[in-house]
Specification:
The chain has about 210 residues and is mostly helical. Helix content is about 75%, strand content about 0%.
Length: about 210
């Protein structure tokens, strides 16, 4: 006789919503020095991965250790990400103001490109979370391959990021960090759903004749 899984009620939903809000606020506080943005996101992503695997959040000490280990490489990632974001924002503002020729079609194409870049960056953050908040370079490469193999998942992540950016422009500024926590959790859910439907292929090795060396 198998025991039924415990049913979730409204208190579990409220508790999880509060946890995600606190996670977003923690990322915002840790990102105040600007170049710590990537380490903060990586640490939060690793915490969300632990939550999905074990059912509980990692200890604070574990998260602080991860943040410290992610800081050196994460500072460079933060600088690159902020530079790309600034360039894309300038392009969008110039097109919207009519200072650059192209009009509506160019603005629409640029908006789609921005959403695609945001979706890719979000999936990279999810991939980094699966490795404890480290390994940005390998995560970027593996995510690029995944996006090429599964454009539907990439499109879903891009749409999610575009919606989050739109909501961030509409809500009060104090709620933006809270929205960030929800967006990162949603990206993890999108990636988990994609992985459940289409698991990553295992690299095939050519057959060898004779014993395999250990």
């Amino acid at each position: 006789m198998s025991a039924d899984a415990p049913r979730r009620d409204w208190r579990d939903t409220v508790a999880e919503a509060a946890d995600l809000a606190l996670l977003g606020l923690a990322v915002a506080v840790a990102s105040l020095p600007v170049l710590t943005l990537a380490p903060a996101v990586a640490t939060a992503s690793a915490a969300l991965h632990d939550r999905s695997v074990t059912g509980s959040w990692p200890p604070v000490r574990t998260s602080l250790t991860r943040f410290g280990r992610a800081a050196p490489a994460g500072a460079a990632v933060s600088a690159v990400a902020l530079a790309v974001a600034a360039l894309l924002a300038v392009d969008l503002l110039a097109l919207a103001a009519g200072r650059v020729p192209g009009g509506g079609p160019a603005l629409a194409v640029t908006a789609v490109v921005v959403a695609a870049v945001l979706g890719y960056a979000g999936l990279v953050a999810v991939a980094v979370g699966r490795t404890g908040g480290r390994g940005w370079r390998s995560a970027a490469r593996s995510t690029a391959r995944t996006c090429a193999r599964h454009p539907g998942g990439w499109a879903a992540a891009a749409g999610l990021c575009a919606l989050a950016a739109l909501l961030a422009a509409l809500v009060t500024p104090v709620a933006v960090p809270i929205l960030g926590g929800y967006a990162l959790a949603a990206l993890h859910a999108v990636d988990a759903r994609r992985r459940a439907r289409a698991p990553e292929p295992v690299d095939a090795h050519p057959a060898t004749i004779g014993p395999v060396a250990s």
